[in-house]
Write a structure and sequence with these properties.
The complex is a heterodimer of chains A (395) and B (170).
Chain A (H helix, E strand, L loop, with lengths): L12 H21 L5 H5 L8 H22 L15 H18 L3 H9 L3 H20 L4 H8 L8 H5 L3 H27 L13 H22 L11 E3 L1 H9 L6 E4 L14 E2 L3 H9 L6 E5 L17 E5 L2 H10 L9 H25 L23
Parallel strand pairs in A: 1-5, 2-3, 2-4, 4-5
Helix pairs in contact in A: 1-5, 3-9, 5-6
Chain B lengths: L8 H19 L7 H14 L1 H6 L4 H4 L9 H20 L14 H21 L4 H10 L3 H18 L3 H4 L1
Helix pairs in contact in B: 7-8
The chains are: A mainly alpha (395), B mainly alpha (170).
């Protein structure tokens, strides 16, 4: 097995967000070229005159499915880090049916309404506005009607995968679906030919009005800029960026008793297991604020959580301190400092470093034993998949 | 200028599939469309009623830990869709301000249907935690069981009422 390289990891969150623009650009462009900015073309699907929706959608689903699970079977994709929609059958069934109803009424779905809108179609703008109202309607009412909330929350909410339900390998299911799709595509072409003969096809060139075009482009630019500026941290966001600190260099600082060093344990439950020696529990925000406010400028403040996810200070921390986070959080500390390394196979220069690290490791293992009065040294964290599941997602 | 032909649907499907695959490989999740309006709502909620927003079943996860709701891959992706769709229409000569409708309905009637359909879809996409892009397309490719249920029900819903709104299109 080779190491999984996907999903990609990025040095900064901004870099990752930038890929969203590029991939979204491609998404919008292809939807437009497929004809999905045109409500009439999309609606044709439901009168069996124009099966483009079915053809494009299923081809895309199968290409991505085979690609994703094919690469996963090669070990290139770590599927445990890929976000797949969790299953809430009642909400998805009712929501799906309603969305289908809305789809044929407006002739667009949420994604294609965006493309229709930016192609200048007024029905696209109206649909998108309607979608916003509909979302607001659900958001406002979900907590008022117990029935709606229980419908929303019903089901396991776990990630259920279709091939696991059927008990067959993902690629086998994908293969069956490809075979089924090929037959369905042949059928779709025939159905289309029968029903299209009755009606003239959707025209390609709508009469254009250049002045409105300009206004449309201008408002789009404003929309895009507004969204981007809203997306970047605004001035009221008082979180400060922190620099990273290798666990070993923190260990050295602790051993050398670096003056003024403040170590804060920001884990949800600081008592869960042994933290970094000398760390102050950060579970009481007011106490932490008091401590930080009283520290001199330039104080080195090292924080850590479970796995190094916290890379910005909580809002409101004073400026002009040297904020750092431990790389990998407590897991990084345990793996980098508390776990002795093997000398096996290293070059001489590396051995020196490794030996130093093992001295540090012994120092802290001992220290931890003394401070916690537990006979055993802290257990080494299991290496491997310790990352959190990505939280993003939705539509 | 004569508008460019639409792409062959299968070619468009393959390209779309590769873009979806790229999203999964690069970002670790599929594509979406309603994240932008949903999360914009969280921004508005945060301004108007922060405590209510922090407790709302839908919005609370967007504002947890003081996170900026719009600082999200799916939001940026929709901004990309806006730019890509616009440039796509521009370069195809399809940029035009008009209402797409069948010959047997007035502009006003068509826009009323568009608005009503939009409201229903916004409600439905919130309830289902995703729309045709986020559930059917992305979750379908990821073999999510609930996403396949969603997708079949979208087609069921569409075909069920297509006859009733036929006048709009045919």
């Amino acid at each position: 097995m080779i190491d999984a390289i996907f999903p990609l990891e990025f040095a900064t969150d901004d870099l990752r967000l930038l890929t969203g623009i590029i991939i979204g650009f491609g998404f919008g462009f292809v939807l437009e070229r497929a004809g999905f900015g045109n409500a009439r073309k999309l609606a044709g699907q439901f009168y069996l005159e124009d099966m483009t929706v079915f053809k494009v959608m299923f081809t895309a689903i199968l290409v991505a499915m085979v690609g994703l699970y094919g690469l996963a079977s090669l070990g290139v994709v770590d599927m445990s880090m890929v976000w797949i929609n969790p299953t809430f059958i009642p909400a998805q069934a009712v929501g799906g049916f309603l969305l289908g109803v809305g789809f044929i009424m407006s002739g667009l779905c949420p994604g294609t309404s965006v493309v229709s809108m930016v192609s200048g179609r007024i029905d696209g703008w109206v649909t998108f506005a309607g979608i916003f109202v509909g979302i607001a309607l659900f958001t406002l009412t979900v907590d008022w009607f117990p029935g709606l909330q229980s419908l929303y929350m019903a089901g396991s909410g776990e990630v259920s995968l279709l091939h696991e339900v059927f008990g067959i390998p993902a690629l086998l299911l994908a293969l069956i679906m490809v075979a089924g799709a090929v037959l369905a595509f042949v059928g779709a072409e025939k159905v289309e030919a029968i029903f299209q003969a009755k009606r003239s096809p959707v025209e390609l060139t709508p009469p254009s009005r250049p002045r409105l075009k300009l206004a449309m482009g201008g408002s789009l630019a404003v929309l895009a800029i507004a969204t981007l500026t809203a997306g970047s941290p605004g001035p009221e966001a008082t979180s400060l960026p922190m620099t990273s600190m290798a666990p070993l260099s923190l260990a050295e600082d602790i051993i050398e008793r670096q003056p003024g060093l403040v170590i804060l344990d920001l884990r949800a439950d600081p008592a869960a297991e042994n933290g970094v020696p000398g760390a102050i529990a950060g579970s009481d925000p007011e106490a932490v604020m008091g401590l930080l406010a009283g520290s001199p400028e330039g104080t080195v403040v090292v924080v850590y959580d479970e796995a190094g996810a916290v890379r910005e200070t909580p809002a409101g921390w004073p400026e002009n301190r040297d904020y750092r986070y431990i790389e990998g959080g407590l897991e990084g500390w345990n793996a980098g400092v508390l776990t002795p390394m093997e000398l096996w196979g290293n070059s001489m220069a590396e051995r020196e470093r490794v030996q130093r690290q093992n001295q540090i490791s012994a120092f802290f293992s001992g220290a931890a034993v003394q401070s916690s009065a537990v006979a055993a040294p802290p257990p080494a964290m299991p290496s491997g998949n310790t990352g959190k599941k990505p939280k993003s997602g939705g539509c | 200028m004569k508008a460019k032909e639409y792409w062959n649907p299968y070619v468009a499907g393959v390209v779309l599939g590769l873009i979806l695959l790229a999203a999964y490989l690069v970002a670790g999740n599929g594509l979406g469309a309603t994240a932008l309006p949903k999360r914009s709502l969280a921004v508005i909620g945060n301004q108007v009623a922060p405590e209510w927003t922090a407790q709302n079943t839908v919005l609370k996860s967007y504002v947890a830990d003081g996170a900026s709701p719009l600082r999200n891959w799916l939001v940026v992706e929709v901004v990309g869709v806006i730019l890509g769709g616009f440039l796509g229409a521009l370069t195809a000569g399809r940029l035009a301000t008009k209402v797409e409708k069948g010959p047997n309905i007035s502009v006003k009637g068509r826009l009323i249907f568009a608005a009503a359909g939009g409201v229903i879809m916004g409600f439905a996409a919130s309830l289902a935690r995703g729309c045709t892009s986020g559930q059917a397309l992305s979750g379908g490719a990821g073999l999510g069981t609930g996403s396949w249920v969603f997708m079949l029900m979208v087609f069921a819903g569409g075909y069920a009422v297509a006859r009733m709104v036929r006048r709009q299109w045919i």
